[in-house]
Amino acid sequence: MSDSLFSTLTKLKGNQRACIYTEPLWGLSMNLCIPYLSVYMLALGLKDTQVGLVVTINTLSQMVFSFLSGPFTDKMGRRKATALFDIIAWCIPCVIWWRAENFWFFLTAAVLNGTNGITTNSWHCLMVEDAEKNQITKLYSIVIACGQLSAVFAPITSILISRLTFVPAIRILFISGCVLMSLKVIILYLASKETSKGSMRLIETSGKNIFQLAGGYGKIFKIILNSKGTVFSIAIAALACIVSTINNAFWQIIVNKKLLVPEAALPLFMVFRSLLAIIFLFFVIPKLSKGVLKIPLLLSFAVYFAGQSLLITVPVEGMLKYPLLCLSLVFDGFGIALLGMLSESLIALHVNPDERAGIMAIRYMLMMIAAAPFGWIGGLLSDISRNLPFALNMIFLATGIVITLLHYHKNADHFV
Questions:
Q1: How many Å apart are CA 116 and CA 94, to the nearest integer?
Q2: How confident is residue 1, by pLDDT bands cut at 50, 70 and 90?
Q3: DSSP result, 109-176
Q4: 6 assigned to some structural domain
Q5: 13 found inside a domain
Q6: What is the mean pLDDT of the segment spanning 235-250?
């Protein structure tokens, strides 16, 4: 199966090739700096609660723009919407983060970055709409692996931090991220074309404005509610989004502030987790993602749970700290890779293709509604104890196991 995944990668054509081959530029531009954003905010004088508030504002912004992403994607076309909102959501915030001095810089960047609620929808439509259905899980495995490829270059971050100190090094990464992300936007736009479904929606939405199109969501909600698979896939995605929101915001903080891992060493742990995720995605996960996805889902939640529980038990002192931290990342790397692939694949497999943009818009909006409070809540909990955000994550991961068991018990003949 790993051979077939490599074969899929080399044989990609059209929009699938354009989207996936340019995706490493997103990883190289954003994954080298975004993981350190919370520690960067603390270094510039923000408190844990302010970090959490910024995360929540960003999530609320994503919620609003996710709601509008269906109309924008249909009205502008998948290709143009992706290009425009990638610039607004990533290139411009990178410049703001580069020059950031206080809370208000981060708040402004968080609002703008929330427009990725639109580009996430449009980009996924651009990639999968003309793809064969049996390719979808492979495509998402490759996409997640591409996003992790930045790990190869993470030692650059470590070298910069050790030579320049933390804040100047991260500033350099943000401005270089703007350049690389701009390059990605240009290449993807030139190498892609509007999808067949996107071309049809451009004609169908001609003469209607964004708000008129948003008014048609009532019909789409009915489509969603009539599909048990779609409802289930949205629930799984919402849980994955909450866990990811908390983990991304507070992992660096617990490792740096509680476990006292030096800032220069943080990128090395990111290298380790990302390389593990890539290995799992290419050589392990494809063997698990055949047929019914019940067992892979249960495994993803359980392994991720183990990683989070191990993280909060790592001792601050002693020889065991670093081996146990690495072991927790083994579990996290597998859980993140598998759950990320499955949460995206499930919706792509269940979605009604005639209303893909609208259903995806509602899906992203619901994900953001679910995740929005937990940046702020995580900040409050982190102020009390650095462990508490991850204890909260464990509750959500256990909830995922229960929901998965209930869904497949009631739908024993479910094909995915």
A1: 13
A2: very low
A3: HHHHHTTHHHHHHHHHHHHHTTS-GGGHHHHHHHHHHHHHGGGGGHHHHHHHHHHH-HHHHHHHHHHH
A4: no
A5: no
A6: 91
For residue 409, which of 237, 296, 294, 291 has the smallest C-alpha distance? 294
Q: Is 118 within 8 Å of 10 (Cβ atoms)?
A: no
Place of tokens 């350099």: 172
With a pLDDT cut of 70, the percent of the chain lying above it is 96
- Structure confidence at residue 43 (pLDDT): 93
Q: Which of 235, 236, 225 is CA-nearest to residue 343?
A: 236
Q: How far apart are the first and last CA of the chain?
A: 18
Span 365-413, pLDDT tens digits: 888 888 888 888 998 999 999 999 999 999 999 999 999 999 988 876 5
Q: Rounded distance, CA 363 to CA 48, Å? A: 29
Instruction: Provide the mean pLDDT of the chain.
Output: 87
- Mean pLDDT, range 156-178, rounded to an integer: 90
CB contact set of 215 (below 8 Å; sequence gap of 6+): none
256 is in which domain, residue-wise? 19-410
Lookup: tokens for 352: 């009604």
Q: Determine, yes or no, domain membership for 389.
A: yes
Q: How many domains does the chain have?
A: 1
What are the backbone angles phi and psi of residue 414, rounded to the nearest 5°? Answer: -65, 135
What is the number of residues in the chain?
Answer: 416
Q: Could you read off the pLDDT of 87-127 as tens digits, one per residue?
A: 999 999 999 999 999 999 999 999 999 999 999 899 999 99
State the Cα–Cα distance between residues 202 and 217, nearest whole angstrom.
17
Mean pLDDT, residues 257-273 taken together: 84
Exposure pattern of 49-74 as b/e (b: 16+ CB <10 Å)? ebbbbbbbbbbbbbbbbbbbbbbbbb
Counting Cβ atoms within 10 Å, is residue 3 exposed (0-12), middle (13-18) or buried (19+)?
exposed
The burial of 99, by beta-carbon neighbours within 10 Å (0-12 exposed, 13-18 middle, 19 or more buried), is given as: exposed
CA separation, residue 68 to residues 166, 203, 284 (Å): 37, 19, 37
Whether residue 5 lies inside any domain: the answer is no
Query: In sequence order, what are the residues at sequence separation of 6 or more whose Cβ sits closer than 8 angstroms to the Cβ of residue 398?
Result: 301, 305
Which CATH number do you get for residue 56? 1.20.1250.20
Closest alpha carbon to 142 in 350, 416, 345: 345
Nearest to 394 by CA among 345, 341, 332: 332
